[in-house]
From TrEMBL:
One of its GO terms (molecular function) is methyltransferase activity. This is Class I SAM-dependent methyltransferase. It comes from the Bacteria. GO terms for biological process: methylation. Residues 90-262 form the S-adenosylmethionine-dependent methyltransferase domain.
Length: 298
């Protein structure tokens, strides 16, 4: 992204965004810091040279630069390594997006805590002002946070208790009390039918599952095989006019295939919907970022 585009994003209260994206990796600005994620040494050197030029052109200098090698297998991921800057500074930090504060952990190997490609989807959820929000695969609960700030009550579900605790911390960082917000460390696919039986209904649902997962009882989850089951279960707890965000990093599930699946599930549950695909954020060129689609039930 150009320094001018960066200024526009900053003016909107955001200091967490990509600076560059390429086939061999990407560079993220996270407040005062930068993480350069790379798939090969050649890509690292090219991105690093690009970052140096970007800093010269823009006049902005990061306090720290971290390098993170991205192995082919997610399971082999390692934490970012400090490349330049003060090693005594804490690895936890706070960034802002649209003026909302998010706590990050730069030392984490999976992700620092905020998926930057979801910026426009978070803004849409905030603008929808839903009353009751179900955030499945909630991770650090960024969607719950924006919904809470728009007045919603939320239910955040994730297998990882640690991630949900980070979600709680994100609410606290923004002065939101937990009173209207529930955090449940369960398998989302198992919890959805229980919510339906209990008669719970939601005005917005976030479905952003990982590509692969294993449930508590060892059940293997593969998004392209199970997405339709998940959406069908979500439709059972969707109130009239519910907005459902469908999102995945699985390259086999592009927005066109997501829409086909969604139409098939809607038909099976006798629901009708409009489908809205937002343009990608300016810092995510085609081929970068998740496939996402909003299913707006009628
Ligand atoms: C892609 S991240 C979700 C990102 C999140 N929507 C966001 O924008 O911040 C996937 C999350 O799903 C969680 N997860 C994996 N399998 C799960 C399951 N079966 N049920 C609930 N959560 C699960 C992981 O712990 C992880 O936090």
């Amino acid at each position: 992204m150009t320094p001018a585009q960066c200024k526009t994003i900053e003016a909107a209260g955001t200091n967490a965004h990509r600076l560059a994206s390429g086939p061999g990796g990407w560079v993220e600005r996270l407040g005062d810091d930068v993480i350069l994620s790379y798939k090969s040494d050649a890509a690292r050197d090219e991105l690093s040279a690009g970052l140096t030029k970007w800093c010269t052109d823009s006049g902005w200098q990061p306090v720290r630069v971290f390098h993170r090698f991205m192995p082919i297998k997610n399971a082999d991921r390692v934490s970012p390594v400090l490349h330049s800057g003060d090693a005594s500074l804490p690895l936890t930090t706070v960034v802002t997006e649209a003026g909302i504060r998010y706590g990050l952990d730069i030392g984490a190997s999976y992700s620092h805590g905020l998926f930057l490609d979801q910026r426009l989807n978070r803004a849409k959820l905030h603008a929808l002002k839903p009353r009751r929000v179900l955030n499945t695969f909630a991770y650090t609960c960024s969607f719950s946070l924006v919904a809470a700030l728009a007045g919603a009550e939320t239910l955040s579900v994730d297998l990882s208790r640690k991630s949900l605790d980070r979600g709680r911390h994100n609410l606290a960082l923004n002065g939101v009390a937990e009173t209207k917000h529930r955090f449940v460390a369960e398998d989302a696919a198992e919890l959805l039918p229980q919510l339906a039986v209990r008669g719970e209904r939601f005005d917005a649902i976030i479905l952003d599952p990982p590509t692969f997962s294993r449930s508590k009882n060892g059940r293997r989850w593969q998004v392209e095989d199970h997405f339709e089951d998940l959406l069908s279960a979500a439709l059972e707890v969707a109130a009239p006019k519910c907005a459902i965000l469908l999102s995945t990093n699985c390259t086999k599930l592009d927005p066109a295939r997501l829409e086909r699946s969604a139409r098939w599930c809607a038909k099976g549950k006798r629901r009708t919907a409009d489908y809205v695909k937002l343009p990608p954020p300016v810092d995510f060129p085609p081929g970068h970022g998740s496939s996402t689609l909003w299913m707006m039930l009628r």
